[in-house]
Write a structure and sequence with these properties.
By secondary structure, this protein is mainly alpha-helical. Helix content is 45%, strand content 2%.
């Protein structure tokens, strides 16, 4: 949509003098901001929202090919599009990775190979031979994680007996029990309830010999004992869980399962509620939605049943129908993208009355979740509020989106001030109710932090918990600072102490929802500035100094996803627009805008901006499950650089942030 220049607050060229002598024209910064604004405004939907694509690895297309063959209903044209997607991402060593620039990973590689074989590609083809050799170097099928092996078991390629039991009776456990489904993270819960149904029925489709995967077991291991390894310590939670798993398997063999039918009915009801109205599929996220379709068929739902039809249609909503490269998204991000774009546009000069901000605010207000979802089992707060990540996902609002949405809404002048005030008051109260005992905030639930659950046999996806984290805690503080929340209150001081306690020795902070320490450190510094913390304190300046220590020779910043597995990779990687923006904002939050690191970072963003106002960024800078699943937010290369440039301009001219139309 076109923008009238009369509606934009002109931004001064605020480049430091030293930067200006580095070859910049006096208005370079203002022009870069204007191009970036125009780029975002062009992409706004008529109803006011934005939704950028989420790009991931090849496993989603691989999983869908496996699903079609398990279902016995293969769409040949769609399968070929998935095959092209998979082949396009094969690495020179024959394998497939889970993030840009990463090395081959066994789960992704086995799934890709299996999908290609199911689609009719002979194991004797050169690219299949290279893939097989790579997979065997990685340890083959035995080295895959539990959830990946379960998909193989559905097609008869891994013995069910060696998979951990997922007893469906767990859904009957009361809230006071040491373990129940609400002690797990929301995403694990949404994946495991349908998997428990699948685990009961074990609906296996037998494949013809040429489609099987015998060759992906290292020599002599195909029929070995795949019992899960014990912890070398005798008294260990893992060993207790393994003994329980053996007991469950024995009981299953005997056939004595007095609560099984009731548990299956409760699991079915639980799943149907969350697939139904108000949700774009179970948890509105790929793994849970795929598992739900398998579980529905295992329960006997025909393809024509309205509930299965809805689940399948919701799933197809994740497809990106690109004729050159068909893709599947893990979920959709309209609420998140809209909130960040509002903030970036307002910070960069769009007035509160601008139609783009007004329409975006109205759209976000319409997405407030007023339903007590899963979160209410661990949080006794009485009035539901908050926002989810996706278009419709009423059972799973989260604190990260809620904080970002409120920061976006605060910069738009409301048409209905009374309604606006009511929304803010109940949403702030909801957000506050999620503060955990350690002073921090987690994403979807409160106090889902029992570390002994990580030793459960089916918890090897590195996401069984929803831990408190520095980035979410600091974002909540940032919100509080902008709306005039009393920073002397105990909840704020506890949150600051949490940030002190979670700082690494080198000055950085871990980033749970973005890659990685650059993301965490930026958000902490920005949050602390927002609440007017003394930014000259030593522990805060150590965070700034760590960011500066990571700056690349080209003036930008980058960090690879490998930093989640290898501490020596902290803050290291090719420069990206989004991570450069984060680092710049973190350093600027500490107050000295004349630092050479700032000038070089600004120069990097200005010289790498495209003429259309965006930046190129093939790297992945978003985190799903650390070490397991990553995603590239296409909007990050467009909104965060704009926000960083605007932040620098505003701080340079002595301004802070746009005024809030809600004050505590």
């Amino acid at each position: 949509m076109p923008r009238s220049s009369s509606n934009v607050i002109p931004l001064p060229s605020a480049l430091p003098e030293a930067a200006a002598t580095d070859g910049f024209q006096s208005d370079a910064l203002a022009k870069a901001i204007e191009r970036a604004q125009e780029n975002l405004l062009r992409q706004q939907h008529r109803d006011g929202h934005w939704c950028g694509e989420l790009l991931v690895d090849s496993t989603l297309c691989s999983d869908y090919v496996l699903f079609m063959h398990w279902l016995g209903d293969v769409d040949d044209a769609l399968q070929q599009r998935c095959v092209r997607h998979i082949l396009k991402r094969q690495l020179p060593d024959g394998g497939w990775n889970i993030y840009y620039g990463g090395s081959s990973e066994v789960n992704a590689s086995v799934k890709a190979y299996f999908a290609l074989k199911l689609a009719g590609h002979s194991a004797d083809l050169p690219f299949m031979q290279e893939a097989r050799a790579n997979i065997l170097r990685l340890g083959g099928i035995p080295k895959m994680n539990t959830f990946s092996k379960l998909y193989l078991a559905l097609l008869g390629q891994f013995p069910w007996h060696y998979l951990p039991s997922i007893p469906v009776e767990m859904i009957l456990l009361p809230d006071w029990a040491p373990f129940n489904i609400y002690k797990m993270s929301s995403w694990s819960r949404a994946m495991l309830v349908p998997l428990a149904i699948i685990n009961h029925f074990k609906p296996t489709r037998e494949l013809p010999g040429l489609q099987q995967l015998h060759e992906l077991y290292p020599l002599g291991t195909e029929h070995k004992d795949f019992t899960l390894p014990r912890d070398p310590r005798f008294f260990a939670w893992r060993n207790l869980f393994l003994r329980c798993d053996r007991a469950l398997k024995l009981v299953s063999k005997v056939g004595w399962r007095p609560m099984r039918q009731r548990a299956l009915e409760e699991a079915e009801r639980w799943m149907l509620e969350r697939i139904g109205p108000g949700s774009d599929g179970l948890a509105a996220v790929f793994p849970a939605m795929l598992n739900a379709m398998i579980a529905l068929r295992a329960l006997g739902y025909p393809a024509t049943h309205p509930m299965f039809v809805k689940a399948a249609e919701d799933f197809k909503g994740l497809f990106v129908d690109d004729p050159d490269d068909f893709r599947i998204q893990p979920c959709l991000s309209p609420v998140w993208d809209t909130a960040i774009n509002m903030i970036a546009l307002a910070e960069s000069g769009l007035p509160a009355e601008h139609s783009a901000l007004q329409k975006a605010a109205d759209w976000l207000l319409s997405k407030e979740v007023r339903v007590p979802g899963d979160w209410a089992r661990n949080n006794q707060h009485t009035e539901a509020s908050g926002w989810a990540f996706e278009y419709n996902n009423v059972y799973y609002p989260d604190t990260d989106d809620t904080a970002m949405v409120l920061m976006g809404l605060r910069v738009a002048r409301p048409d209905e001030p009374e309604r606006f005030q009511e929304v803010f008051k109940r949403a702030i109260a909801w957000q506050l109710s999620f503060q955990c005992a350690d002073g921090g905030w987690a994403a979807f639930d409160k106090e889902v932090t029992q570390h002994w659950l990580e030793d459960m046999p089916f918890a090897d996806h590195n996401a069984i918990l929803d831990p408190t984290c520095s980035d979410l805690t600091a974002r909540t503080l940032e919100l509080f600072g902008y709306i005039g929340f009393d920073v002397k209150q105990r909840c704020v001081r506890r949150a600051v102490q949490y940030l002190v306690d979670t700082q690494d020795d080198d000055g950085s902070w871990y980033g749970r929802w973005g890659v990685n320490y650059i993301y965490g450190t930026w958000q902490v510094l920005r949050g602390l500035r927002a609440i007017e913390e003394d930014m000259t304190q030593d522990w805060i300046l150590r965070g700034r100094d760590w960011l500066e220590s990571c700056q690349n020779p080209d003036g930008g910043w980058g960090e690879t996803c490998a930093s989640y597995d290898d501490p020596t990779m902290k803050g290291k990687g090719d420069s990206t627009a989004s991570q450069t923006a984060w680092a710049l904002m973190g350093i600027c939050a500490c107050g000295d805008l004349e630092r050479s690191s700032v000038r070089r970072g600004i120069r990097y963003l200005l010289t790498t901006q495209r003429m259309d106002g965006a930046w190129d960024e093939p790297q992945i800078t978003g985190t799903g499950f650390p070490g397991v699943f990553y995603l590239r937010y296409d909007m990050y290369r467009q909104n965060f650089p704009l926000l960083a440039l605007a932040t620098f301009v505003n701080y340079r001219r002595g301004a802070q942030h746009p005024p809030s139309f809600f004050r505590c």
